[in-house]
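Below: protein 1.
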Amino acid sequence: MVKISVEMVRKKAEHHDRLLAPLEEISLHQENIEKIEYIQDWCPKLKILLLQSNLIAKIENLNKLKHLQYLNLALNNIEVIENLDRCESLTKLDLTLNFIGKIVSIESLVGNYNLQNLYLTGNPCTDFDNYRDFVIGTLPQLSTLDGVEIDRSNRIMALQNLPLIRSDILFEQQNYLCQRQKQKVRLENDITNKWENEYKDMDPEERNKKFWAEKCEHAPEVRYEIEHMRQLKLKSEEPEKKEEKKPIKLFAPDGRPFNINQAKIKFLFSDAESDKFILDLAVYKHLDSSLLNIDVQTNYVRVTLKGKIFQLHLPEEIETTNSVAERSQTTGHLVVTMPKVNGIVKTKMALKLNSQNEIYREREENLTAATGQSKREFLEIGPADELLDFTKITRKSNPTYVDSRFKVHEKKPSQNFVDDPDVPPLI
């Protein structure tokens, strides 16, 4: 049983941005719907509702659609016209090819004063004598019936003869309802017996051929059985759906790489050396190297083996341009050598310091060879066998000490200098 769902209705309302409340037209035909529900609550402004080619057996849950103008319920399993008296704006009703035998049920449409077009073609009631006159006399607001325009003279004659016509119609209706009840019981028993006994151990293909070759009656029960058979056929023809594998998450929401070993392969990760990381991956010995895909990034290394992922998060940043991947020809192991970024910096600093020390050492050797004295002898202050007292080298500790930087030297005048007695001496 197919039920009307929100997603089904939204899918049909794609032209309206999937909004339901302001929707004025919707088509739910050929959806195998068996019951009308929820539409009046989700789409209260509907003007056109198309529900043809379904399995609906009863007209219901439409009384809130005050703006509904056109309702199409053709090719369903409806046997009685009902529950449309509150659809006051209804102007067109299509009930073609249903199973309406209770023709008196059209009297429920008397209050639909806007109803102008009614279609009942293909229903059992159309075989009754005076069917057309009864409908025209019962619903004087109609302008067309089954696509044929109603003349004024036909309407007047139908209204004049309505009491007599109605008595004849009730008699024919009662005969049909008795036959319909017997048919319903017989078909239900036949279908149950067929599926429990005849079709029980039969091959599906053979059962399908037998079912579609048999003649059947035009009845709601047969329509249900046909739809059930059609679904079984579609199900048997559908290829087996493979289980879809969930995509592997390679990174956490914060961007941190996950450790993944989808291939379940053994590995050895070494950081014993201060300047590099070494990953030894036990790749299958006879695996072709073309099936390996290696991706080395600053904070992770990823190896793909025949579509399976091995990923390892690195504790420090590495130098990707200087990383090297090698494979052993004897064991098949894959060895990835990844220099550390900090390790390279320290190595460069050490090499620079060593080169400077070499330069200083070479200069000292040249100086010693030229003067006969080492650089150390030039740096010594005072005799090497005496202890120097550094306590009296400041002015506070030695009052007699005079710093040459603060010593005042008397400046002698020039030869042409003439002393002026009126100028007072400098204090």
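Below: protein 2.
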Amino acid sequence: MLSRNMRFLARRYSQAVTFRTTESSPSQHNENQIGLFYSLNNDLCKQLFAHGGLPKSYMKQTKTFTETTLMVRLPALEIMDCIKATDLNKPAIRYLLYGEIGAGKSLTLAHLLHYAYEDGYLIVHVPWVSEWLRRVPRHKEMSNSLTHEGFVDLPLDAAAWLLHFKTQNQIHLKKSDLKISKEYVWSKREITPEGAPLAELVEHGITRVKYACDVVDALVNEIKILSNSKQCKTFVAIDGFNTFFEPLTRLRTPTKKKVASEEVTLTSSFMELTKNDWVNGVIVLTADQLGVPLEHQESYLPKYLLYKKGFEHIDPFVPVEVGRYSEREFLACANYYRDRLWLRGPPETEVELKLASACNPYKFMEMCAPL
């Protein structure tokens, strides 16, 4: 009886299911395309994700598949619809993506970044907060802040982020109408004058790494001013936002004292940007269990991962859960993997993989690799 049911399910899974859509513009995606993959061209991928934004395991897969594709999923569509209906003259609305490990939060955020890029937003994107606070190599560059007493600077990380910002927003930064509102004095000989292009401020932080953290702080304030004055509309995207509220980082001072998250200048800069005291912007954040220590990974719910401090910081916000694959999404993904020769074997294989992976996107991808 069991084998008969397995054969019936296998026939059902082996039926041809459409897994691609030719519509490559996120603003044109709708519920009819849920579960379908769309392709991103290489130049756009390099501009948006060359310095982070796509999970490393997914990047390896795109090299194997010789193409970069994203699945159209309901959480991304829901946020896009909300953004389209939003009055940007009101304070920036904060959206929080949450879900279990491997559900697809980072790829949903990537889909939204593509939408924001196409819609003309100035993008402020932090690919993974843990790279700053938790993934600490043996000789991580760290120094005491000269402008914020009691704070710690991460100059190389700040300079790398500024390069990421410059790459993503190269079209906006070429415009001469984005100017800074005041003079910034870095040293006796180095000054960024009032009215200088925003690009000049960014370039200073990249070339003079010593001041990179202070440049990030200045850039955040200038972006808020530009957005309030309707000079640009801004899309803020931070992956692993809850890491900012983890009590202790893996950073240590020369005296071996552990550094708290709020003692890092980059943390204070992005706390300022994620307030809703400015207009003409959208803020999309993710809360991820991988951004906290193993002992704090008991639940993926926002209230648990953000702690009281983080929850109060972004309250009010719109929570959007990224769940496991639906039946339709799983079938489309299985057919895509077969098309790319990532999944082989008899039709019964999909039935077993569905049960074994519990329709978790990451687990499904990992299980298909050796098949």
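The chain has a mean pLDDT of 91.
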